[in-house]
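Checklist before submission:
- one chain only
- standard amino acids only
- sequence pasted in full

Submission:
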Amino acid sequence: MASRIEIRLKRFAVFIHRWMGVAFCLLFAWWFATGVFMMYWDYPDVSAADRLARAPALDGSLVRLLPQEALVRLQAERLPIEAQLAAFDGRPVYRFEFGGGEERMVYADDGEEAAEFSPDLLLRAAATWTGRPAHDARFEGVLTSEDQWTVSGEFRPLRPLWKYSWPDGEEVYVSEVTGEVAQYTTRASRLGAYFGAIPHWLYFTPLRKNGKLWSRIVIGLSAVATAVALFGVIVGVWMYVPSGRVPYTGQKRLHMILGLFFGIIAGTWAFSGMLSMDPFPTAVRSAEPDPGFKIERALRGRMPPLEAFAAKPPREALAASHLRVKQLDLRSFDGKPVYLATESPDRSMIVPVAGAPVAAFPENRIQAIATETIRPDRMEQSRLLTEYDAYYRDRRRQSPLPVLLIQVDDPEHSRYYIDPRTARIVGGYSSSSWVTRWLYHGLHSIDLPWLYLHRPAWDLVVLALLAGGCALSVTSVVIAGQLLRRKLRRR
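Returned file contents:
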């Protein structure tokens, strides 16, 4: 009786795996092949680092208004929570953020508000971004709906988008709302996305524009793919264990051998990919801000009165920094007004209103502010990291170093990484995010300590696993084709 049940269960498992494999083998092969491109090509986007790299340096001689004078020109009903001096359309401009997504700009040379942006200005913004002559640009139209490169929700408040292209394949989208570049692609970045991110994420415009439907389909397909791989491993072990041999020939034999080696990898990749979509409901978050938010807020401090910056006007701060400053943030630290002058993500200078420029904020003051902020919890440890660790890492080595690691003795075992040059939290981890850290990043990106930070060791391991998974999937495609051909001949 037991053997009959075992035989029936084995037949059922084989049947399920076979037909699920027929239905989804192409998807598996697709995912493994596109995963290779995902290792080296990202989906096109415009990052903060990109904006800094392409922004012109501020010319202090053109800054004629003090911050408080610029704010008066706006006749704003409330005080800003953030202020910044940057270049816009070749002129210095103050950006004031008032909260709730409200941001207004005032030119620092004549006090005029930058509120409406002409077609000529939008074209200049696109040409400046590319460094190409404006007369070589081709106007592609005004986009009020999604296309392949502006399909995510982040572009919704930026539309309409004015699209321009150049003969070398560069395409620039400029927001009519902000007057700034919202998206940028090249022939190479589009090609990399077409072979990598778009097919891998199923990021096709008609599907992706419906966010909920796209999310459900990706989660559903990932769950089915996980089940296919799990059934395959069960069947393979079931077939192999009693006799210690592979009871097949040809493609089936090769498929079973590859499955015994790479079946678990295929299943964990499908499952961890599903986790990236947050498929499981999460607990309701507490209304109390987490320690990281409180530390960040305490380090930034309240926006000081803009009159406090009159003692050292922005023009003097720019000269004192000795950098080609592209962004000058007006903020406070430890209750004192300071400028944060930034040339690039790894080149910045702190210019106190009262005092000489320094390269970084004092580590002991950062630690003291954090210790006071997290009470009644206490500081477990604080130390300066000069290398990435298991929770703060970047295989492209673009995240800032050194950073100040602060570990909190709280129920979440929270840890925060603070960049002393900006007094901003640049990384964090808590016990509640272990699923994202280990089951997603660990299993999907093979983001494991040591290996992830040592290249080309990481590349070789991941490429070998992808090649094995792809070979396993290709044998599935061949077997599925043979099976369907036999069935059709019988019909």
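Reviewer check: Residues 366-429 form one domain.
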